[in-house]
Design goal:
four-stranded antiparallel β-sheet, alpha+beta, about 160 residues
Length: about 160
């Protein structure tokens, strides 16, 4: 078992494009559907695997391009420490001073390490100024607990 780290920062309005953040249904719309529905299905089916937007289900990072993997770790503590370091790095840009003052990095890192060691994924999100959004994720791989059918992007 190992872990992959993902980081995305972008416009909040782009993050809100939920259709591109969820995988397409396994089967296309039935024959006779509205052409717009068929076209939208095709767009999502083509874009979801390649778009850099964070997926709604954390495990689906594994279907994204290998180039989006920021780092890979065998040790859960190292993966959790990376996540804590990224939160500390972006904390001065949080939209709310209360949020950056409230975060206990040691608690966050220990909690993330515990969840990762159990095989779970960890995903965090924060609003930044301007309005931007920061999405951090560490995904357990080989196999992923919630989606064991998903293949490792770096093997």
């Amino acid at each position: 078992m190992h872990h992959h780290g993902y980081l995305w920062v972008g416009a909040k309005e782009r993050f809100d494009q939920e259709a591109l953040r969820r995988p397409p249904y396994p089967e296309p719309p039935p024959a006779g559907c509205k052409p717009e529905l068929v076209q939208r299905y095709r767009e999502v089916a083509a874009e979801f695997p390649v778009v850099d937007l964070p997926p709604l289900e954390t495990a689906y990072w594994l279907v994204k391009p290998r180039s989006l993997v920021r780092d890979t770790w065998e040790e859960t503590k190292e993966a959790a420490a990376w996540m804590g370091a990224r939160v500390a790095e972006y904390a001065p840009r949080f939209a709310s001073d209360k949020e950056s003052d409230f975060i206990d990095l040691a608690l966050l890192v220990n909690s993330a390490a515990g969840r990762l060691s159990s095989g779970s994924d960890v995903s965090l999100g924060f609003y930044l100024e301007r309005p931007l959004y920061l999405s951090l994720a560490v995904v357990t791989c080989s196999p992923n607990r919630s989606k064991p059918e998903l293949m490792c992007p770096v093997e």
